[in-house]
Each structure stands twice: as C-alpha cells, then as structure tokens.
Amino acid sequence: MTSTAHLGASGRGRTADIPERSRTTGGRGPLGGLVWLVWRQHRLALGVLLTAAVGGTVWCAVLRGRMAGFIDAHHIAGCSQISLVARCSGTQDAVQAFRDAYGSSLRLAEAGLVLLPALIGLFLGAPLIARELEAGTHQLVLTQSVGPVRWLAAKVALPAAIVLAATTLLSAAFAWLWQVGGDEVSGSYWYSSLGFNSLGPVPVAYSLLGLATGLLAGLLLRRTVVSMGVTLTVTALVHSVFTQLRPYLMPIVTTKFGREEPTQLPDSSWQVGQGYYTSSGAHVPDVPCLPDQDFAGCLRREHVVGQYLDQHPVAHHWPLAWIEAGTVVVLAVALVVIAFRVVRRRYG
Fold first, then answer.
1. How far apart are CA 79 and CA 90, in angstroms?
2. What residues form DSSP beta bridges with 15?
3. In the chain, where do the E strands start and end?
C-alpha cells in the first residue's frame, strides 16, 4: 500500500494529499450544501412565508388585545345577538357594535389561514421540483456525489420544516385570538367553513398536504404551470371531500325534545340533522303533516311524540380537528413516499 506526499507550503513538512471527495466548498458537507442550495433557490417564497408568520402573529396579538378590551368594557363575553342567557339581556347593540368593529378583521384572518395551504402548494410545492426538471438543472446536481434520494430529501426537508414552523405559529396565534372573540360574540362559530379550517392543527395539516401535492405533481408532470394547476385542483378536491365527511368523523350526539318543548341547542353546538321520533323510538326525518291543517292531530296519528336534533357539541371540536388533520398528514406522507419511489425508479 503506497501513499503520496509533497512538501507543505513552507517547504518544511510533508502533507498527505486530501482525497478530492472530502473537499467541500465553504466547509459544507454534501447534504448541508444541498440544503443551502434549496434555500437559495426558494428563498423568496420561504422568506415571504416566514415574514407572514411573524407579521400575522403580531397582528393577532394586537387584535386580541383590542377585542378583549371591548368585550370587558361592555360585559358581552359569551353573549350573542339572540341569547337565552339572562346576563346577556340588553347587550344586542354592544354585540352588533363589536361585530361591526372586529368582524371583518376576524374573517380576514380566517380566510388567510384557509387560503394558506393552497398558496403554499402553488408557489412553493409545485415549483420545488418542476422548475429544476423543466430547466434541466437537476442533471448538474445528480452528477455530483449526492445521489437522487438525498437530493430529494434535501429538497423536501427545509421547505417542510419551514412550512410546519410557520403554519403552527400562525395557527397558535389565531387560536389565541379566537379564545377572546370567537363563537357567540363574533357570530363566527367553530363549525363554520372558515372557523374549522383555520383553527388548531387543520391549517397546518393542509399546508403540508399542499406542499406534498405540489412536490409529487412537479415530479410527475415536469412543468411548473401545469403542476400548479393540478396542485390547486387536488388540494381543493381533498378539502371538499373532508368537508362532506367531517360530520361523520365522530359519533353524532342526538338530543330529544318532547312534542310541546321548544327545540333549542346551545349556540356553540353544530347541528347536523333534525326530525321527529315516534313512540317506538324510530327517527323520522319528515312527516306528512301540513302546518295549516290539524298538525297536532296528524302527529298523533303518525305516533310522533317529539323532535330530535343531531349535533356535535363544542367538546367535539378538537377531536374532530385532530382526526381530520391526522388523516390529511397521513395522506401527505403517502404522497412524499410515492415521490421518493418515483425518484428512485427514474434516477436509480
């Protein structure tokens, strides 16, 4: 076994030749250099996302302070425009004034968190791979010492970490804001389309799904604009499917009322169905009785003894959110796994 050596720069000593593969620019290893490259390539989108997260958090904190001050000054915590709570009598004008002052800001924050996953998929996920494949610059990277799997790992790791951190920060800030002005006072409830999709882990999960969808679409289609369109379509489709499935992710609670009792649920409950029940306990969504006829007599003939309301109480909010978010994250992970299999098969 032989080795070569040469005189050092001073001529006094001998230094072994350093293998070429161990030399890295700027002290970066292969994977570290790739992560830095990913940041350089997508620093605009990633920087905008981080800036939006910090700015949105500060804005939510300021808005929360103002909303809390208004609610405390007018004693309208937990009050709605039409409320059965005795202490809320005479507060309708104050509740309406609160909604006029802060309702649009709250809806803007909700809409921003609902749209964020689609924006991440469009402007970060879809161009992540498609831009390099379209331009052919991936060939330069793949000819280096880093293999295709490590290349894809670096392309995914940094954006995923930043998306997770930024959306978690925004979601936490909005949930903190929601504790003060959500539900009854604002009239924007947890089960609304905007409310549910902007609270807790749901926007975080959909953001990761948008990133994963854009990644796989770009890898398969190799065209940035086409990948953006497919990413938007798939993200909207998944969102629509879960909106339809959401009431059935947990067992529904049924509340029964007598025939003469008023049917009233708390404002915070999500009503998902209603109908009548008979003396045998059977549920009848509708009865062939017309209000302008002998309605009470018709109900007796149909053996109806009361009404029922199907609902999800407010206690179901967080379990429903975690179930949906967990399912969406599993779907996102599956898309990333498929992307790795495609890269391994295509590039070896």
1. 10
2. 6
3. 5-7, 14-16, 253-258, 270-278, 283-284, 304-312
Tokens standing for residue 272: 């998902």
Handedness of CA 237, 346, 208, 332 (dihedral sign): positive
Closest CA to 112 of 159, 179, 167, 177: 167
Average pLDDT over residues 105-132: 94
pLDDT tens for each residue of 58-114: 999 999 999 999 999 999 988 887 776 778 888 889 999 999 999 999 999 999 999
- Contact predicate 162/208, CB 8 Å: no
Coil, strand, or helix at residue 104? helix
Burial class (CB in 10 A: 0-12, 13-18, 19+), 60: buried
* Strand-strand pairing, 253-258 and 5-7: unpaired
Q: Quote the pTM value.
A: 0.85
Q: DSSP letter at 123?
A: I
Half-sphere exposure of 22 (CA within 13 A, CB side): 3
Measure the CA dihedral 112/114/118/119, to 10°.
10
Averaged pLDDT score across all residues of the chain: 86
Decide: 230 and 217 in contact? Cβ < 8 Å: yes
pLDDT tens-digit readout, 44-58: 999 999 999 999 999
Residue 43 neighbours by CB under 8 Å, 6+ apart: none
First CA to last CA distance, the chain: 33
